[in-house]
Each structure stands twice: as structure tokens, then as C-alpha cells.
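=== RUN LOG ===
request id: a7f3
mode: sequence -> structure
chains: 1
length: 42
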Amino acid sequence: MKALQIAEIAPDFTTKDHNGNEINLSELTKTKDVLLFFYRGQ
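=== RESULT ===
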């Protein structure tokens, strides 16, 4: 997978939040603006 560039649209994904709840990017963006932070090596 190649790295995202600034302002590039991220692919849809599902992951868990800090409370263990499953979240989906496309669902979040329906009602909110989303800012993603990527921590390399985590």
C-alpha cells in the first residue's frame, strides 16, 4: 500500500476506537468531518 499524500482521499476502512467500538470511515464522514492521524510503527 502506498502512503497517502496531503489532501488525498483515504480508502474506506473499519477499525476499533479507543474504547474498543468498531467504527467505519465512510459512516463517520456521513455526519462529521474526519481528521486522520497516522502513527508510524504503532
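=== NOTES ===
DSSP finds one helix and two strands in the chain.
The first strand starts at residue 14 and ends at 16.
=== END ===
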